Amino acid sequence: MPVSSNMQGKVVTVTRYIMEMERNIPDATGDFSNLLSEITLAGKMIQREVSKAGLVDVLGKTGTVNVQGEEVMKLDALADRIIYQALDHTGLLCVMASEEEEDVLHIPPEYPCGKYVLNYDPLDGSSNIEANVSIGTIFSIHRRVTPGNGHGTEVDCMQPGFKQVAAGYLVYGSSCMLVFTTGQGVHGFTLDPSMGEFLLSHEDIRIPGSGNIYSVNEGNRELWSQGTKDYVDGLRDPGKRNGSGPYKSRYIGSLVADFHRTLLYGGIFLYPSDTSSPQGKLRLLYEAAPLAFIVEQAGGMAVDGTSRRIMDILPDELHQRTPLVIGSRENVEDYLKSDR
Ligand code: P6P
């Protein structure tokens, strides 16, 4: 839901928007606005690295260091370090978990621990960067569940999606966008490079009730269940949409980009289980669960390929995978009817 109508036509930064939102939360302490502000700072730093990646790659080809003598790091490892170092000193987190790190990341001993937990995928889709395809950062925030105010543990990271207090993603594409929810709707902010500020550009995003775009890697078709095969094959049937032609197929192969288009245009994204990935490919804690929170807040639906809500899955591994079927409610329900 929009924060307030008096923002119409004004330049609203993400910081101001979060402060306005927190005014609606009686016991808000400002911690969340501080947390999100640090995440946006990390996003700006990653955007800067991503935008010059092609250049660095050319320069970096002279060896393992670039012309400035800097270590040419893999971009996702660099993004991982940027996020960790942007958040580790805030005193807001008790533990972090990253797609890039096998074990949980503890807060350095010189900094205090806080009441939140951050699970994140620092740079999803990074293998696409050399083709200049949009990639992204995905994050999920929980409150700690272990007692005390010291270091958190895996238990704090491995919480079900319905306990998230916030979730979001940054998409590094033709423009850099931040999209997040705190349970009060979904809001999008676009980076104005001339100001270095994320400005409100998509307030209260609602996913269309249905859409005519489907997004799946059809190269895996022969590995799918018969129900998934029948569903996707049916979308190509010109008669499927009351004679208005087949669905459109769009697949970028970068989860954040495919999800962002689905959120704005409607339709369905699928990464179903298949015979080579029975548990699916995508990760629950820092990919499926945060996107599920966002899509549900925008009026959509996210399931694991059966009728189980992604947000209800109780994790038992930090890097647990899950099948993911996400998008407009009517499209996901249509899939569920066929995958019995
Ligand atoms: P496939 C990128 O490597 C990624 O993790 C997601 O961003 C993307 O949705 C998926 O894998 C693509 O996987 O098997 O279609 O190449």
Could you characterize the architecture of this molecule?
The protein has 340 residues and is of the alpha+beta class. The protein is 30% helix and 19% strand. The strands form two sheets. It has a seven-stranded mixed sheet with strand order 1-2-3-4-5-6-7, with helices on both faces. Helix 1 runs antiparallel to helix 2 and helix 2 (31-51) runs antiparallel to helix 4 (75-87). It has helices at residues 14-23, 31-51, 53-60, 75-87, 154-157, 226-235, 255-265, 284-297, 329-338, and strands at 93-98, 116-124, 135-143, 166-172, 176-181, 186-192, 197-202, 213-215, 248-249, 268-271, 301-303, 324-327. The protein has two domains: 5-202, 2-Layer Sandwich (Fructose-1,6-Bisphosphatase, Chain A, domain 1), CATH 3.30.540; 213-337, D-Maltodextrin-Binding Protein, domain 2 (3-Layer(aba) Sandwich), CATH 3.40.190.80. The structure holds 6-O-phosphono-alpha-D-fructofuranose. 6-O-phosphono-alpha-D-fructofuranose binds at residues 124-125, 127, 217, 253-255, 258, 281.
Q: Tell me the name of the CATH homologous superfamily of the largest domain.
A: Fructose-1,6-Bisphosphatase, subunit A, domain 1
CATH class descriptor of the largest domain: Alpha Beta
Shape: globular
Radius of gyration: 20 Å
Number of helices: 9
Give unreliable regions as ranges.
Answer: 58-63, 65-70
Helix content class: 25-40%
| End-to-end CA span | 35 Å
Note the beta-strand portion: 15-25%
Q: Sketch the topology as an H/E string, one letter per element.
A: HHHHEEEHEEEEEHEHEHEEH
Bound molecules: 6-O-phosphono-alpha-D-fructofuranose
Kindly state the mean pLDDT as a whole number?
Answer: 89
Structural domain tally: 2
State the major sheet. Answer: 7 strands, mixed
The CATH architecture classification of the largest domain is 2-Layer Sandwich
Number of strands: 12
Oligomeric state of the chains in view: single chain
The CATH topology of the largest domain turns out to be Fructose-1,6-Bisphosphatase, Chain A, domain 1
Instruction: Please state how the strands of the largest beta sheet are arranged side by side.
Output: 1-2-3-4-5-6-7
Structural class: alpha+beta
